[in-house]
Amino acid sequence: MVEKHWAKKKERGSYWGIVIVLRAYQYGGHWLMRLILAPVITYFFLTGGAPRRASLAFLRRVHSFAAEQSPFAAEPGWRQSWYHFWQFGLHALAKIDAWVGKVSKNQVRNCGDTHFDDLEKQPQGGILIGSHLGNLEVARALASKKYTRRMNVLVFTQHAQSFNRALKNVNPKVDIDLIQVTDIDMGLTMLLKERIEQGEFVVIVGDRTSVTQPGQTIEQDFLGKPASFALGPWILASVLECPVYFLFCLKNPDDGHYDLYLNHACDQLRLPRKSRREALQPVLKAYSEMLEELVMRYPYQWFNFFDFWKKDSQ
């Protein structure tokens, strides 16, 4: 079976479906929302053949790659895959908690080499490259309450816009700076460059290939096999001529706290046109290795439900 590029797959769920779930959260709290989520997640698990296969293949790859350090006692099966889907549902719940003020700064543990306090002191902004591992919304929500620097988040799917529009419908005070994009063109680049010069930050994920230019990729080993990573985020970082950071925020299953990893990657990423791929290798390798390390520690918080190692040209 030939599977489509992740961006060409029809998104499941709707704006009003999201609103209904959020209203359940608003009036019934966690217990009612979990009650509603359980059959919804089970439905998507049973009817979503491709995401289910991707989930199981990913969990088994982590188990095989980690060997004796595997987070699983035995090779993962359908129960672990269902739990993977369930964690995706709780991921949405955590987003809401963060934006309505139910996650405090005391619940977040700084594990990286840089703190948001450090960013606040710098005159220039920068670019934060995250992933679909963990929950960036928790980090952004808490940062927005304490710090003055705006974070401009680039999103490439309508689902992200729908979720945040529904969240504002439930809580009008939510202030989420999303920029819906289909392509990173010159106009957008100039806008972001201006904002960074004003001390703002740009947040983009680095673990999915381009929506409009799926062939613009570079290979890097990830969990023991070459995977395609998008060139776009790194080219954007180079053009913006600003500091680059990695940003990950994951919920620690042992104590319920959030582990925040904000790591400085470089002061400025320089990618000469003629040797772009060679120049990119060191920072991409660092990003991939950090992603790999965190994935093995928090495997159920990987929310890429497609074949991550499939080349877009296949």
Automatic annotation (TrEMBL):
The chain crosses the membrane at residues 31-51. GO terms for biological process: glycolipid biosynthetic process. Keywords: Acyltransferase, Cell inner membrane, Cell membrane, Membrane, Transferase, Transmembrane, Transmembrane helix. InterPro entries: Ac_Trasf, LipA_acyltrans. It is found in: Cell inner membrane. This is Acetyltransferase. Its main location: membrane. GO terms for molecular function: acyltransferase activity. GO terms for cellular component: plasma membrane. It comes from Idiomarina ramblicola.
